[in-house]
Design brief:
Blueprint (H helix, E strand, L loop, with lengths): L1 H20 L22 H10 L19 H15 L10 H16 L6 H6 L7 H20 L1
Helix pairs in contact: 2-6, 4-6
Length: about 150
């Protein structure tokens, strides 16, 4: 019993210390002139789907809930956001060259068709981010249409 109390105390101390040393999540940027939605490349339902299901990891406009500031969850959130933004950042869309835009749009369709995005751990907590089959089809059609428009530029 005494060992259990010591181990519990050490775990509690580690969690408290982690609050002070864990890295903070990336800061949001107020202005995003290169943003895909702000530039009118996604509108209406598609824009709303992107905001609800993608932007928390794939933009500079992340909605951080309270628990994203509490270690060890904050470490996971920070990792996922940084990795997501590195892979695809809708807020920096206009900075991408034509080839990268086309590749990213193709990947959007692929990850939706293969049910890889949004991540299951994300939709477990954010129920509103779940995409129905119709939502996925709308996003896939949008990405294919934007690919055609991008190729025509």
């Amino acid at each position: 019993m005494k060992v259990l109390k010591i181990v519990g105390g050490l775990l509690l101390a580690a969690l408290i210390i982690a609050q002070f040393v864990a890295p903070k999540p990336p800061a949001n940027q107020e202005e995003n002139p290169g943003d895909l939605i702000e530039n009118g490349l996604a509108e209406g339902q598609v824009a709303q789907l992107l905001k609800n299901s993608c932007y928390d990891c794939h933009s500079n406009q992340v909605n951080y809930p309270w628990y994203s500031y509490v270690a060890p969850v904050s470490i996971l959130v920070r990792h996922d956001v940084l990795e997501g933004k590195e892979e695809l950042n809708f807020s920096e869309w206009q900075d991408y060259d034509k080839r990268r835009k086309l590749r990213k749009l193709k990947e959007v369709g692929e990850v939706l068709e293969e049910d890889e995005m949004p991540l299951g751990i994300y939709t477990l907590i954010h129920q509103g981010a779940k995409l129905s089959d119709a939502d996925k089809e709308s996003l896939i059609e949008w990405s294919e249409d934007l690919m055609k428009r991008t190729m025509a530029e």
